[in-house]
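Batch manifest, entry 17 of 40.
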Amino acid sequence: MKLSALAKKNFTQSKSIIFMIALASMLVCCVLNLGISAQISIVENILEFTGDNQVKYKNLTEDEISRISNRSEVALADVHYYVEGFAVAAADASASIEMIYSSELGNVANFRITNGRGARAVNEAVISPHLAVLLGVEPKVGEEFEAVYYLFDEDGNAMEIETLRFVVSGVLQEQRMYAAMNIYHIYVSKSFAERHEHHAVLFLRFNNRTEPRAASQRIADEFGIAPEDTALNEDYLRANLNDPTVIIFASAVSAILLAAGALVIYNAYSLAIVRKVHQYGLLTVIGASKRQIKRCLYLEALFCAGVGLPLGLLAGTLFGFAGMEALNGISGIPMPYVVTPLAFAASALVVLIMTWLGVTGPARKASLIAPVEAVRFIETEEQLYKRRAIENITLNALVKINMSRSKKRLAGTVLSLSLSGVLFLSFSSVAFSMRGSAGNLVAQSIAGDIVITAGEFGTISNPHSITPGLTEAISELDGVESAAAFAVQYFADCIEYNGETFTTNGQKAAGVSADIMRSILNKVYDGNPTLDDFDDPINVIAEIPSVRTMDFYERSNPEYIEKINRHSVGAKITLDLLTVSDGNWEMGETVTLRIVGLVRADDIPPYVMYDSYLPKFYLPQKSFEANGWESNYERLILTVGESGGGETLRAVEALCAPAPELAVQSFAAYRDELVRQMTGVIIIVTLMLGVVALNGVMNLVGTTYMGIERRKRELGTLMAVGMSRKAVGKLLTREGIWISAICSLISAAGGLGAGFGLCRLMYGAGADYLEFIFPLLPLAALLLVTGTVPCAVSMLAAKKLKSSTIVELLGNSV
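Output type: C-alpha cells
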C-alpha cells in the first residue's frame, strides 16, 4: 500500500482530529471576522471626521509644499487653504461656517463628492447635506445661496466684510459626526481662497510601503519643520494598526490563539499515534524510512485539514454573525458584520500553521518508533528509571507518583485550561471595573441628576438662555429636590510672551450659591479663604487644571505653564469682558480679579462647561451681581428624588424644548447608555473567549484520554494485583481533582493579577475614573469551570475504563 493511500485511510478514521481542526478554524475565523468588522467600523468613524490623511504640517511655504508633495513616498498630498474669519448663513446668524479650499476634495476617504464636481470658479462651492439645511437650500448642483463674511479686528470683534453669493458645484457625502457636532464647512475654490487672507496646511498620506511615523519625522527633519507644526493623525494610525502598541497587542493575541489551536491539534495527534503505534512499528519493519512515516502523518494532517477547515470557517462565520447581531441588539449602535476574503485566507493560513505545528512533534515521535516498541510501547517520559520505589503505597501516594512522572503531559493540560481562565478573568476584571466605574466617568461631565446647559454647541450661539423665569419653573417641578444655578461671565485674556501678544477666549467666572461656594472652599489646597472674604466682589477662587492636563500642555504648548503661573494666591488678573450681541462676541470693559484660593479641577464636580485650558474662577452669586454681570445662567444642576426619575426628566425637556440651544442631560440615562454599550462589548468578547475556553476544554479531554490510553497496561496491572475497579476510578478522579485545583489556583491568581495590573495601567494612561472592582461573579464562574471540568472529564474517562476487562487491558496493543 502506498503511504498516501495509508494516510487517506487513516484520515477516514480520524474524526477527533477533524473536529479539533474545525474547532481551531472556528476560533480563528470568528475572532478575525469580528476583529476586522470592529476595526473597519472604528476606522470609518474616524475617517468621517479626519479623513485618511496620516500627518499634517503647518507654516510651510508654497515651495516647501510643492517639494514635499512630489516626494516618492507620498501617495496623496492635500493642500488646505483656511480662509481667515468665518461666514454666517443669512437664515441663521448663530452658526459660523468655515471656508476651506481642499486640493484633493473628493479623493480623501469620507470626503467624497456624491454629485457634481469640486469648486473651480470664484463663486462656486461644495456643500454637505446638513450645511444645505442650515443654508435653506436643496443639496443639489446649481442651487444658489448667500453667506455673510466676517473678520475679527484687532480688538477681537467680528466685523461684517461682505455678502458672498455661491453656486453649488458639488455635494459632499453626509458626515454624521460633523452634523451631530454642528460643524459647518463651505469648500471653496482655490481662486476664492487666494483672494482672501488665508493660511495653508499640508495633509499627507504615504504609500503602503512606508511607515508613516518614520516618514513624517524624516520630512520634518529635512525641511526644518518645528514639532508644534507637525501633527500625526493618531486616531487613524491606531485604528489602522500603525501604532506599535496596537501591533504588539494584536501580535500577542494572535500568538495566544495560534498556541491554543496548535496545542489542541498536537494532543489529538499524540493520542492518535498512541493508538496506532503498532502500525508505525510495522511500517518500520517492512522498510519504511523515518521520512516516509513523517510524510504519511503530514499527508493525513492535510486530508484532515481539507475537511475540518471549511467546516470551521463556516461555523466561525455564523458564530461571529450571531455574536455581532447580539452586540448590535444590546448596544444599540449598528456595527456591520464584514466578511472578507482576507479573513478566510488568513484563517486558513493560521489553521494550516497550527496543524503543521501540531503534527510536527507527533510525526517525529512516530518516526522514532522501533519494531520492538510496537509490541510494548512506553512513552519516553514514563521510562522505568524515572520511577521511584516507596513503601506502604496508598491511593494518594500513587496519585502523586503518577502526576510526578507525567509532568510534561500535566503541564500541557494545566497550561491549556489555565490560559483560557487567565484570559477570561483578566478581561472580566477590566470589563467589570470599567462597567462599575461608568458612573465615575459620567460624573466628570455631569455634576447632578439632571444638568441643563446653554450654548453647548458653539460659542457664537447665546450662552445665557437659562433665564431666572425658566429656572424658577424647573425648580417647582414635582421630583426636583434642589436646583443649583450657575451664572457665567466670559473673558478675553491678553498675555505678553516672548515679545508677542496672545489673546485667549473662553476663560470664565462662575457665580454660585452659598452652599456650592462652601463645598468649593472645603477643597481649596492653597490659601485659606472664607465666605467673608468675598464681601469684596473682585475676590475669586481659581480652578487649576489637573496635573495630567498641565503636563500635556507643557509638552505641546510652551507658554502654557507661564500662563498658569500667573494664577497664584494674591495675584491680580486683568481680563476683558466678552458679551454676545446678535450672535457675535464683543469685547467690553477691562476688569481685575484677585485670587484668594486655588482648587484642583479633579477635586470638585464639573459645575460649568470647560472650554479653555486656562483656569476658571468661582465667586458667590452676590459678588457676581455686584460686579454688574448678566444674571442669566449657563448651567442648571438638578437633584432629583428617587421617585422623580423619568417623569421629571420628561417635564424638564418639555420646558426646555422651545430653546434649541439648551442641552438636557440625565446622569442616569447617560450612565445606563454607557453601561449598555459596555455590556455589549463584554458579551462579544466573552463569546470569543468562550471559543478559546472550548479549545482548552477539548485539549483537556484529549490529554486525559490520551493519558489513559498510554496507561492501560499499568491500570490493568493494578487491577490484577488486587486493586478494585472502584479504586482505579478513584485514582483517576483524584488526579482530576488535583488538576482542577491547580488550574483554579493559576487561573484565579494569574487572572486577578493581570486584571488589576491592566486597570492600574489604564488609570496611569488617563482613565482616572477607573476603580478596580473585584469580579466576584466572573471568578465564581471561572472556578466552577476549572474546578469541575477536569474532575468531570476524569470521572467519565474512569467510567469508560471500567467497561474493559483486566485481560483486555493487559493485552492491549498499547
